Design the sequence.
């Protein structure tokens, strides 16, 4: 069993960044845009675990198209706020993606290394199209070039929690997005 240090389990102060109503409204718009962009087609949604789960479950109910749902898990191993280098990709997509319209669903894009790694991997399967939808994007933190076709909100280089996103596995169940503050 893995253990976390006591420091990692201590609650950290945070403040509200995006409230529930604002997030809901934006996700509905994203779902409508995706529905119209892919009309008469079916889409394979590939969620990047774990941060995608809350966003994905709301978004998919606003996509009025036949969809299939797959997941890939990714962890960029960081302890707390400090990011280390390793990106570990786990799981895999069970359906063949060749000639399919594939939409990667992410919670937050930070350095963009995770989503870029997954794009390269899925591209090898020769999908008909491959795009990304992310709830949050931190363009100021990108360390590689990536085209994010759909994004909910652009935020600054700050650490956010809630709506599926964690800090040392906490706060994923908050129904809004908050930012950690140092006090
Ligand atoms: P990347 O730096 O874009 O590769 O992001 C790697 C992963 O780090 C994301 O998928 C999230 O799981 C996590 N992450 C990055 N920034 C944040 C944040 O502000 N809050 C919570 N998780 C984050
Ligand atoms: Mg995390």
Sequence:
């Amino acid at each position: 069993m893995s253990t976390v240090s006591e420091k990692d389990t201590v609650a950290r102060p945070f403040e509200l960044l995006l409230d529930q109503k604002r997030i809901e409204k934006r996700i509905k718009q994203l779902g409508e845009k995706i529905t119209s962009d892919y009309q008469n087609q079916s889409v394979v949604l590939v969620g990047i675990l774990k941060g995608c789960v809350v966003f994905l479950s709301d978004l998919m109910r606003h996509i009025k198209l036949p969809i299939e749902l797959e997941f890939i898990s990714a962890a960029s191993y960081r302890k707390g706020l400090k990011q280390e280098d390793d990106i570990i990709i786990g799981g895999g997509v069970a359906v063949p993606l060749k000639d399919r319209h594939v939409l990667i669903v992410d919670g937050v894009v930070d350095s963009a290394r995770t989503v870029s790694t997954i794009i390269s991997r899925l591209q090898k399967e020769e999908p008909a199209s491959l795009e990304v939808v992310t709830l949050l994007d931190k363009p100021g933190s990108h360390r590689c070039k990536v085209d994010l076709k759909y994004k909910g909100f652009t935020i600054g280089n700050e650490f956010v929690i809630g709506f599926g996103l964690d800090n040392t596995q906490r706060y994923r169940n908050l129904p809004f997005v908050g930012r950690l503050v140092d006090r």
Remarks:
- The chain is about 20% helix and 35% strand.
- The first helix runs from residue 6 to 9.
